[in-house]
Specification:
The chain has one domain (4-104): Trna Endonuclease, Chain: A, domain 1, CATH 3.40.1350.10. The termini are far apart. The protein has a five-stranded mixed β-sheet, with helices on both faces. It has helices spanning 4-22, 64-71, 101-104; strands spanning 26-29, 39-42, 47-55, 79-87, 92-97. With 108 residues, it is an alpha+beta fold. The protein has three helices and five strands. It is globular and about 35 Å long.
Length: 108
């Protein structure tokens, strides 16, 4: 039987997918959450690699470590990395992840 946090995460991934589909993206989901990114969204001019997280209503977690980790991944200029955080019974917080300059210089 699936665990509640997994089911909650999957529901958030589908909610994110539906939002991206409404914006005209083609969206693929990484089933089982085994990869670094949960969703890949493709448009005519760019690709989004998206990690989805869920927080309780009113929680202030900012996922600093996750954002830093995603910043270490090199991507072409037309590939965007984003962290989408769903606040239960609330709204999306979308963090755009820039490339980590120190990593790109080889200092990690």
């Amino acid at each position: 039987m699936a665990k509640v946090p997994y089911i909650t995460g999957v529901k958030a991934e589908y909610r994110c997918r539906d939002e991206l589909l409404s914006q005209g993206y083609f969206v693929m989901r990484s089933a089982g959450s085994r990869g670094l990114f949960d969703l890949i969204a493709v448009s005519a001019d760019h690709v989004k690699l998206i990690q989805v997280k869920v927080i309780s209503f009113g929680e202030k977690k900012k996922f600093k470590k996750e954002r830093m980790d995603l910043g270490y991944i090199r991507c072409p200029e037309n590939v965007l990395k984003e962290l989408w955080v769903w606040e239960k019974h609330g709204k999306w917080y979308i963090y755009k992840i820039p490339s980590n300059k120190e990593y790109l210089k080889g200092k990690r």
